[in-house]
Design a protein that fits this description.
The complex is a heterodimer of chains A (about 220) and B (about 250).
Chain A (H helix, E strand, L loop, with lengths): L2 H15 L2 H20 L4 H24 L4 H5 L2 H5 L6 H30 L4 H28 L9 H6 L4 H15 L5 H30 L4
Helix pairs in contact in A: 1-6, 2-3, 2-6, 3-6, 3-7, 3-9, 6-7, 6-10, 7-9, 7-10, 9-10
Chain B lengths: L3 H4 L4 H33 L13 H28 L2 H33 L7 H22 L3 H29 L18 H33 L4 H9 L1
Helix pairs in contact in B: 2-7, 3-4, 3-6, 3-7, 4-5, 4-6, 4-7, 5-6
Classes of the chains: A mainly alpha (about 220), B mainly alpha (about 250).
Chain lengths: ~220, ~250
């Protein structure tokens, strides 16, 4: 079995051993979404107007919630250290890790958003746009939160520090996604903004893993 | 001999002693410029026909906002120097600039809010430049927080360096996206390529103050760098000697 296959199955086994890691962010997302109408008003016009934005923010928070542990357990049980001795470039392994993270931890969150959209009475076409923006934007967000997680590996009680450090870098993504949603709401052309969002995501997914592996190397090698 | 000017920077002691002298020069120069510029701007410059006297906060707000942005770039330059030449002093500079940069960003946000109340009727609007300043403040905070969380100073310095470089690549993207998102702010007060819209009696003191604040920032950064050098080198003989003499 190739190394890549084994990494993939290892990831699956880890999830099977601790399904809570996947379920908790979903649980969190649904809880936050249920709090919105309670904190605001049960008025469905208002909800359908701000619903998609609320779902975006809640998804962002849920993403950050599970990104905190992206590299932490692999770091503490020594797996990351072993990565350095494999006959694969570190960037490749980091990329694989980020892809599996996206598949197993981010995709479930995206798949649950239609339900969140329905209970906030978001119109169907806006909901569709929301799903598309999430699918396009989350690779970039995953890479950046991976960077936050990798940078804070060196601190013993980092907690949500990685999140706080990376959040400002999400601004362009959030703005572009919100632009798409606003255009979807008044029925104008969303394609140009989606293209920009996609471009940002592609560039981030290309370059950020390189930076992430530099950060991991830094934290494992100490000062080397 | 040819590389001596460069290698000197690797010596904390050399830097500590030199920086003390530079600090003195910067301090007096900044004080002179700031007194001149502020007195000219606050007392002698003409009253604005539209904003009255309230525009005079420009002599604080604009220099501070300039500095807030310039210091992030300075920090990025230090990060490059740290990674390329492994110069520890660059890390010291990065540490002091992060704190100073956050302070100037906060000051520019507060002075902007104070100016916004009489001119726009509100302390805060979600305008492009205010928003990107706010994001900049969070970026500075991230650098400060990351350093505080990592115990080993070398490791902390490199982690901060990575963060700063990623931030500096993202800053223009953030700036343009925020600008596209909303624009309401008055256009930039001073542009290098155009003649300023205000009369010379208004912009000359502003220029003096900008220069003054830049040099004052240099004074403050040198001071904090010296303190950090002393702390990091506390086990070395020359620091012990210095402290025992004092």
């Amino acid at each position: 079995m190739s190394l890549e296959r084994r990494m993939f199955t290892r990831e699956l086994k880890l999830i099977a051993a601790r399904p809570g890691d996947i379920l908790k962010p979903i649980w969190f997302l649904m809880l936050v979404i249920s709090m919105v109408p309670l904190a605001l008003a049960p008025d469905s016009d208002l909800l359908s107007e701000i619903g998609s934005a609320m779902i975006w923010v809640a998804t962002l928070l849920a993403l950050l919630l599970n990104a905190e542990h992206l590299f932490q357990s692999d770091f503490s049980d020594g797996v990351l250290e072993q990565w350095l001795f494999l006959d694969r470039p570190l960037v490749w392994l980091v990329g694989l890790k980020l892809i599996t993270h996206w598949l197993f931890h981010v995709l479930p969150l995206i798949l649950i958003t239609p339900i969140a959209g329905i209970i906030l009475s978001v119109p169907t076409d806006v909901l569709l746009a929301l799903l598309v923006t999430l699918v396009i934007a989350t690779p970039a967000l995953t890479c950046f939160s991976g960077l936050g997680a990798a940078l804070t590996l060196g601190s013993s009680r980092s907690g949500i520090l990685g999140v706080l450090v990376m959040m400002p870098l999400f601004v362009p993504v959030v703005i572009l996604a919100a632009g798409v949603l606003i255009r979807a709401m008044d029925g104008s052309d969303t394609l140009p903004l989606l293209a920009l969002l996609g471009a940002f995501s592609v560039v981030a997914a290309t370059f950020v893993p390189i930076v992430v592996s530099a950060a991991i190397r830094l934290n494992i090698g100490g000062s080397n | 001999m040819g590389w001596r000017w460069f290698h000197q920077w690797g010596s904390p002691r050399w830097f500590y002693e030199r920086a003390g002298r530079w600090q003195l020069v910067c301090g007096w120069l900044a004080l002179t410029l700031l007194i001149t510029g502020s007195f000219w701007g606050l007392a002698l410059a003409p009253v604005d026909y539209q904003q009255g006297n309230s525009y005079r906060i420009i002599y604080l707000h604009v220099p501070v906002a300039f500095l807030a942005q310039a210091l992030y770039t300075a920090m990025a330059v230090c990060a490059v120097v740290l990674f390329v030449w492994k110069m520890k002093l660059a890390d010291v500079a990065m540490q002091s600039i992060a704190v100073m940069g956050f302070a100037f960003t906060a000051l520019s946000l507060v002075s902007g809010a104070v100016w916004g109340k009489p001119t726009w009727g509100t302390y805060w609007v979600w305008d492009a430049r205010l928003t990107s300043m706010l994001i900049l403040a969070f970026l500075y905070l991230g650098v400060i927080g990351l350093r505080a969380a990592i115990q080993d100073p070398d490791q902390a310095g490199k982690a901060c360096g990575i963060l700063v470089l990623v931030g500096v690549v993202n800053l223009p993207i953030i700036k343009y996206s925020v600008e596209w998102w909303n624009t309401l702010h008055q256009p930039a007060s001073l542009k290098l390529t155009e003649k300023p819209a205000m009369p010379a009696s208004m912009w000359i003191p502003l220029l003096i103050n900008i220069l003054g604040y830049y040099i004052a920032a240099g004074y403050l950064i040198l001071g904090s760098m010296r303190a950090i050098v002393l702390e990091r080198e506390r086990r070395s003989a020359w620091v012990r000697e210095l402290v025992s003499h004092a």
